[in-house]
């Protein structure tokens, strides 16, 4: 009969000894190798654990560069050349990261008229001067129509670096640059200010009103203790898109010419 359970190791060993004994009686010599020690039968070889990896020390964090104070830098500039150098060294505006050049100003800083636009475009970014592209050429013709040129006008913007894709500068970008713009006005001391476009008008007059409501209406800009009458008008880029509005811009220019004649 087949047993219900397979024989144990002890039973198998006893059966083997019995068989060997039977072979001995029959004159058959059989050598049985000794059984391995129990420790070798039952224990797996001991594995040595790998030594722990040495701790890697992290490099000390680089000290953060202190944020530049635009107000202090602008205040410390005692003349326009120093202000230009301060603006060029200022790294607190993200626009500078994508711009080629700092666009500060062109014209005569001692002229009676300061023209303040919005921001540099592609041509201005390439040349490092404001209003030198198509809209700048139209601005020059507009000023020439009332007898003005680079000797009698000083041209700048509310931001000094080109916004990517020629987009409008954001409120935050304008506010970052504001201390330099206001110091620029205080140092140049213009007799009159022409605000070109809605962005510059809203920024310098600190108003939410649009250019359609404000153009042709004289107001006042005060910066660093210097105050000057300011006239908002359309941006030349707007006039290139909508030439039918040039008649209104011409009326603004005639108002500006009359004011300049009164001052002289």
TrEMBL record:
Stretches for region Disordered: 28-73
Pfam annotation, one family: UDG
Catalysed conversion reaction: Hydrolyzes single-stranded DNA or mismatched double-stranded DNA and polynucleotides, releasing free uracil
SMART domains: UDG (SM00986), UreE_C (SM00987)
EC number of the protein: 3.2.2.27
Record's keyword annotation contains Transmembrane helix: no
Enzyme kind, highest EC tier: hydrolase
Recorded GO MF terms: 4 iron, 4 sulfur cluster binding; metal ion binding; uracil DNA N-glycosylase activity
Biased composition (Low complexity): 50-65
Single GO biological process annotation from the record: DNA repair
Keywords noted in UniProt: 4Fe-4S, DNA damage, DNA repair, Hydrolase, Iron, Iron-sulfur, Metal-binding
InterPro entries named among the record's database cross-references: UDG_Type-4/5, Ura-DNA_glyco_family4, Uracil-DNA_glycosylase-like, Uracil-DNA_glycosylase-like_sf
NCBIfam families, A to Z: UDG_fam4
The protein's name in its UniProt record: Type-4 uracil-DNA glycosylase
């Amino acid at each position: 009969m087949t047993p219900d359970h397979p024989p144990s190791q002890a039973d198998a060993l006893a059966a083997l000894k019995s068989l060997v004994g039977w072979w001995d009686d029959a004159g058959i010599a059989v050598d049985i190798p000794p059984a391995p020690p129990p420790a070798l039968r039952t224990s797996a070889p001991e594995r040595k654990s790998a030594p722990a990896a040495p701790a890697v020390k992290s490099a000390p964090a680089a000290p953060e560069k202190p944020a530049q104070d635009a107000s202090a830098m602008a205040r410390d500039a005692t003349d326009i050349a120093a202000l230009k150098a301060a603006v060029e060294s200022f790294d607190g505006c993200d626009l500078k990261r994508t711009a080629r050049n700092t666009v500060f100003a062109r014209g005569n800083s001692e002229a009676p008229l300061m023209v303040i636009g919005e921001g540099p475009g592609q041509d201005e970014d390439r040349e490092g001067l404001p209003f030198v592209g198509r809209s700048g050429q139209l601005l020059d013709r507009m000023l020439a129509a009332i007898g003005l040129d680079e000797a009698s006008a000083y041209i700048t913007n509310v931001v000094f670096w080109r916004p990517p894709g020629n987009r409008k500068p954001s409120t935050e970008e304008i506010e970052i640059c504001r201390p330099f713009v206001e110091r620029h006005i205080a140092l140049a001391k213009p007799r009159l200010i022409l605000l070109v476009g809605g962005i510059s008008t809203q920024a310098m007059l600190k108003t939410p009103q649009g250019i359609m409501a404000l153009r042709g209406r004289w107001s006042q800009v005060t910066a660093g203790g210097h105050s000057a009458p300011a006239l908002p008008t359309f941006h030349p880029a707007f006039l290139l898109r909508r030439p039918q509005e040039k008649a209104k811009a011409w009326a603004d220019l005639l108002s500006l010419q009359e004011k300049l004649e009164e001052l002289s």
